[in-house]
Amino acid sequence: MTHASTPAYTYLDVAKMIDHALLAPTLTEDDLETGCRLALAYNVASVCIMPFGLRRCAEVLAGSTIKASTTIGFPHGANTTRTKMTETLQALEDGGDELDMVVNISQVLSGNWDYVRADIRAVTDATHAAEQKIKVIFENCYLNDTQKIRLCEICGDLGVDWVKTSTGYGSGGATMEDLALMRKHSPASVQVKASGGIRDLDTLLKARELGVTRCGASRTQEILEEANRRLAPSSRE
């Protein structure tokens, strides 16, 4: 008689990889409130919410281990650096623990790397000055590998906290190939976040095997209920 092997993860290993995404433009205030409370119930890593909802999100999550986060320059990264800085300072004032900033995709494609570096540096420095964390979104579906690698190098030089594949609103999301590439070309101090297309537990676990530490997900409840089904009750702790 054979026995199923013990999973190489606990419930918390999985839950604390998830940034619960509340970014769809159709979400109502009730949806945002419900989403924050769902995140509390499942003990995820963070809630990434539309900027206007961040203050309320931080209030709901206060006292928990779940981080309140929002987006900067979302979803195209085309805002001026000054506008991104205004968004950043507002988010920090509203209780943001982690900020997900989109690079200026146009400037990346144009090869204006000095602009790209300065744009990322401004938001990173302001976020770190407030002792909070920054994730930099590449939107890989529009980039070639050379551009992705250059962004990893710039982000490594600037000491960002995560490099992130996608907004979830481009023409494609995270791929295992991109995740492996980003992990390979980022220093150990920079974590990797997958976003877009992380819809089930198996995909999240594949990303984890590649060294990914966070995944943006809107199907949080389904993923974590599946984790519960696969794990012994004692693993949820």
Brief sketch in words of this structure:
The chain is of the alpha/beta class and 237 residues long. Helices cover 45% and strands 15% of the residues.
| Shape call | globular
Overall residue-averaged pLDDT value:
95
Major sheet, described briefly? 8 strands, parallel, barrel
Order of strands in the sheet with the most strands?
A: 1-2-3-4-5-6-7-8
Bin the helical content: 40-55%
CATH class: Alpha Beta
* CATH homologous superfamily heading: Aldolase class I
Number of domains: 1
> Which blocks of ≥5 consecutive residues have pLDDT under 50?
none
Helical/strand content category: alpha/beta
Spell out the blueprint of helices and strands.
Layout: H1 11-15, E1 18-22, H2 29-42, E2 46-49, H3 54-61, E3 67-72, H4 81-93, E4 98-102, H5 105-110, H6 113-129, E5 133-137, H7 145-158, E6 162-164, H8 176-184, E7 191-194, H9 201-209, E8 214-217, H10 220-230
Parallel strand pairs: 1-2, 1-8, 2-3, 3-4, 4-5, 5-6, 6-7, 7-8
